[in-house]
Structures are given as C-alpha cells and as structure tokens.
Design brief:
With 61 residues, the protein is of the alpha+beta class. It has one domain (2-60): Alpha-Beta Plaits (2-Layer Sandwich). It has 2 helices and 4 strands, in the order E-H-E-E-H-E. The strands form 2 sheets. The protein has a two-stranded antiparallel sheet. Strand 2 and strand 3 form a beta hairpin. The chain starts with a strand and ends with a strand.
Length: 61
Amino acid sequence: MYLVAVDSGKCESCEECVNVCPQGVFRMVDSKSDPYQTSECVFCESCIGVCPSEAIKITEM
C-alpha cells in the first residue's frame, strides 16, 4: 500500500495527475489535486512524471 500526498502550495491546478492516473487516485477539489483513492495506487509514478511543479510524493506504507 502507498501513501500519496499532494503539496497544495505547489499544485498548479493543471489536472495532469487526474488525467494520467490509470487507477483514478486523484480528483480536483477547490482547484487543487486531491488523492482521495490512495488505496488504489499501484506506484506506477505516472502522476509524478507529469506534475510540472513536483507537488506529488508517494511513499510505501
């Protein structure tokens, strides 16, 4: 299982993580990325690769 965190101060509201995640981990809330389905993360790192502000961190629990 992985912990997915988004630094809302760095998030640029581009929605790239929402669009690229094959597991549907992210949604947008108040124009910021929200990793609300972290239990679905398979650590493919697609979201990290597309985030222009490096706001996403994934750690193994």
